[in-house]
Write a structure and sequence with these properties.
The complex is a heterodimer of chains A (142) and B (202).
Chain A lengths: L9 H23 L8 H19 L1 H7 L2 H24 L14 H32 L3
Helix pairs in contact in A: 1-2, 2-3, 2-5, 4-5
Chain B lengths: L1 H21 L3 H21 L3 H23 L14 H18 L11 H4 L4 H11 L5 H9 L1 H22 L6 H4 L13 H7 L1
Helix pairs in contact in B: 1-2, 2-3, 7-8
The chains are: A mainly alpha (142), B mainly alpha (202).
């Protein structure tokens, strides 16, 4: 993929810098507001990743790698799955079925809340990591 | 009115799909794919499936367009002219398509309240009636995805993870040195060999 070298496309660079914080914020909103509105971990992960991909397209992959190194991405990919599966393991250890969040707190509704929060966070982290590393994989070849 | 909007969107969908097939220019086809996903997202909104529409818009028209463009950089931007398509292929496609359409005849009509998914006491009825007191979140889709069907979603996350691992093991995620990465890099440069090393060899 052709990536723009530095010192070119000033307008795009300035606009990108302005837009990226809002994209990240929207990603977080979708992640943590998924209980109340449309959204959830998967969509949030994709939106969060798109901010970094935008950065990579405009400023070049080398710059983005400084912000988020491939090593961190590898950890993120597995961390999300571990968080999800770990939630399941914890519910089993606490005497419930796999991913039965009722046992996580005294009040089953609170348990459900915590369980869904952890699980959605896991999905979000994994999807973010996978999407950005797919982009790195494709973009680093020329 | 809603039906009209749905018909218009689905017609656009069909037109774009034909465009993707006919187009030889792969770059154009990728852009059309993004448009296809965007129209599909609109159709999902009309069907009140906001979560699905959200995913389709973010993944279908956003990320996958970028990834397709990345994949295009591995290949040429023009599709190779095809040879003579065989008659057998045409017959096969027509029969398969006919069978698929025949299969839809058994399905309940769009929006029917008494379709099995809507009227089964353990599915939609239960989710709508008791998910608020059983699981909590006002968004029932979240309750179903993360709690009732948490096991499925775990599987989906694993699929995403596996896809990431598979692509990375094919393409690699090497931590290259900055100087290797810059596009201005002259071909034939031996990476990792400093000028000092070369001198010391002589």
């Amino acid at each position: 993929m052709k990536l723009y070298p530095r010192q070119r496309h000033r307008v795009l660079q300035v606009v990108t810098k302005l837009v990226i914080p809002f994209v990240l914020m929207f990603g977080l909103y979708v992640q943590f507001h998924g209980d109340y509105g449309p959204g959830g971990g998967f969509q949030a992960g994709v939106i969060f990743a798109s901010a970094f991909i935008l950065h990579g397209l405009i400023f070049g992959l080398q710059q983005t790698r400084r912000v988020l190194s491939p090593g961190v991405l590898r950890v993120m990919m597995s961390l999300g799955v571990l968080l999800y599966a770990g939630t399941g393991a914890v519910t089993m250890l606490m005497g419930g079925n796999l991913l039965d969040y009722d046992v996580l707190a005294h009040d089953p509704l609170h348990g459900q809340h915590w369980g869904i929060f952890a699980v959605e966070l896991g999905v979000g982290i994994t999807v973010t990591g996978v999407m950005i590393s797919l982009f790195y994989g494709f973009a680093s070849k020329r | 009115m809603e039906t009209l909007v749905a018909i218009v969107l689905l017609t656009f969908l069909a037109i774009v799909a034909v465009g993707i097939i006919v187009l030889r220019d792969l770059l154009g086809a990728v852009i059309l794919l993004g448009l296809y996903s965007l129209i599909a997202a609109g159709a999902f909104v009309v069907m009140d499936a906001v979560d699905v529409a959200f995913t389709e818009a973010a993944v279908g028209s956003g990320i996958s367009t970028i990834l397709f463009l990345g994949a295009l950089s591995f290949t040429k931007h023009e599709q190779k002219p095809r040879g003579n398509d065989s008659v057998m292929a045409l017959i096969f496609v027509i029969v398969t398509g006919g069978l698929l359409i025949y299969g839809t005849l058994d399905m309940p009509h769009y929006g029917r309240a008494d379709s099995p998914a809507q009227s089964h006491p353990d599915l939609a009825v239960r989710f709508i009636e008791v998910s608020g007191s059983e699981v909590g979140p006002p968004n029932i889709v979240t309750s179903v995805l993360a709690s009732y069907r948490g096991y499925d979603t775990l599987g989906e996350t694993l699929v995403v993870f596996a896809a990431g691992i598979a692509v990375l093991s094919l393409l690699g995620l090497k931590r290259r040195r900055p100087e290797e990465e810059s596009p201005e890099d002259a071909p034939g440069d031996t990476p990792g060999v400093k000028p000092d090393d070369v001198q010391s060899q002589y």
